[in-house]
């Protein structure tokens, strides 16, 4: 069975990771590599509906229910889309994945970290990214980039985002082989170069 690679991009909202994932995708396509670009929440199909609830539902949503919605999207995404693409030999680039649930619901919403890890494991069937890049940006910069038009998640406030950022750094500290942190305060081109260097190491 041919095997591709699985690379995830993580970081607080407004860290520039979505720009960077597109740049890496273009770079790899330019090198004639087969890629598949995707994101969470909002995998094609069911995930699109789940994303709508997660970002725009106006009623009350408990942190546990919120976690299960992210996890449901992930379970479907991994099983139906990510695993088949890896098996076809593609490099799958995913904008957010398991570490988002750990950072946002675990550290941010302060749910039990070990339980979130366990639930992530069920959702992915044990699939782990070959590389995860965390784009680190200070919370003030993030707040300025996100601006006034905040979605449901972005409205959580500064304390929440401080915990999310610290959570990501903790995740990277615990898994230094898989998770690499890039300072996202630099310019787009220099950050792109750092991303390419990390991918070349795979
Ligand atoms: P999105 O618009 O995709 O944000 P971004 O462009 O910052 O990636 O919104 C996803 C939001 O959902 C974002 O605030 C992070 C949050 N999120 C979680 O809280 N837990 C998760 O497991 C995932 C995948 C995302």
Largest sheet geometry:
5 strands, parallel
Kindly state the number of beta strands.
5
Low-confidence stretches: none
Ligand roster: thymidine-5'-diphosphate
- On the 0-100 scale, what is the average pLDDT? 94
CATH superfamily: P-loop containing nucleotide triphosphate hydrolases
Question: What percent of the residues sit in helical stretches (DSSP H or I)?
Answer: 40-55%
Account of the protein in words:
The protein has 202 residues and is an alpha/beta fold. The chain has a single domain, classed as P-loop containing nucleotide triphosphate hydrolases (Rossmann fold), CATH 3.40.50. Helices cover 55% and strands 14% of the residues. The protein is built from eight helices and five strands; from the N terminus they run βαβααβααβααβα. The protein has a five-stranded parallel beta sheet, with helices on both faces. The longest helix has 25 residues, at 63-87. It starts with a strand and ends with a helix. The mean pLDDT is 94. The site of thymidine-5'-diphosphate has 14 residues, from helix 4.
Overview in brief:
By secondary structure, the protein is an alpha/beta fold. The chain is 55% helix and 14% strand.
Please supply descriptive tags for the structure shown above.
14% strand; 202 residues; alpha/beta; binds thymidine-5'-diphosphate; 5-stranded parallel beta sheet; single chain; Rossmann fold; 55% helix; 5 strands
List the helices and strands and how they pair.
Blueprint: E1 5-11, H1 17-30, E2 35-39, H2 46-56, H3 63-87, E3 91-95, H4 98-108, H5 113-124, E4 131-136, H6 139-146, H7 158-174, E5 179-183, H8 188-200
Parallel strand pairs: 1-3, 1-4, 2-3, 4-5
Helix pairs in contact: 1-8, 2-3, 3-5, 4-5, 4-7
Thymidine-5'-diphosphate is lined by residues 13, 18, 40-41, 55, 70, 95-96, 100-101, 104-105, 153-154.
């Amino acid at each position: 069975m041919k095997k591709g690679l699985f690379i995830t991009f993580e970081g607080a909202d407004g860290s520039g990771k979505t720009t960077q994932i597109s740049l890496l995708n273009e770079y790899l396509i330019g090198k004639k590599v087969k890629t598949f670009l995707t994101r969470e929440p909002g995998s094609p199909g069911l995930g699109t509906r789940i994303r709508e609830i997660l970002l725009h539902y106006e009623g009350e949503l408990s942190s546990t229910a919120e976690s299960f919605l992210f996890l449901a999207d992930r379970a479907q995404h991994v099983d139906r889309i990510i695993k088949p693409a890896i098996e076809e030999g593609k490099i799958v680039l995913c904008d957010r994945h398991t570490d988002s649930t750990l950072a946002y619901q675990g550290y941010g919403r302060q749910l039990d970290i070990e339980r979130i890890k366990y639930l992530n494991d069920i959702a992915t069937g044990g699939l782990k990214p070959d590389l995860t890049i965390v784009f680190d940006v200070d919370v003030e910069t993030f707040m300025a980039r996100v601006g006034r038009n905040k979605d449901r998640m972005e409205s959580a406030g500064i304390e929440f985002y401080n915990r999310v950022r610290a959570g990501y750094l903790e995740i990277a500290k615990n898994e230094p082989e898989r998770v690499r942190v890039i300072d996202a305060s630099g310019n787009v081109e220099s950050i792109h170069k750092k991303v390419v260097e990390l991918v070349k190491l795979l």
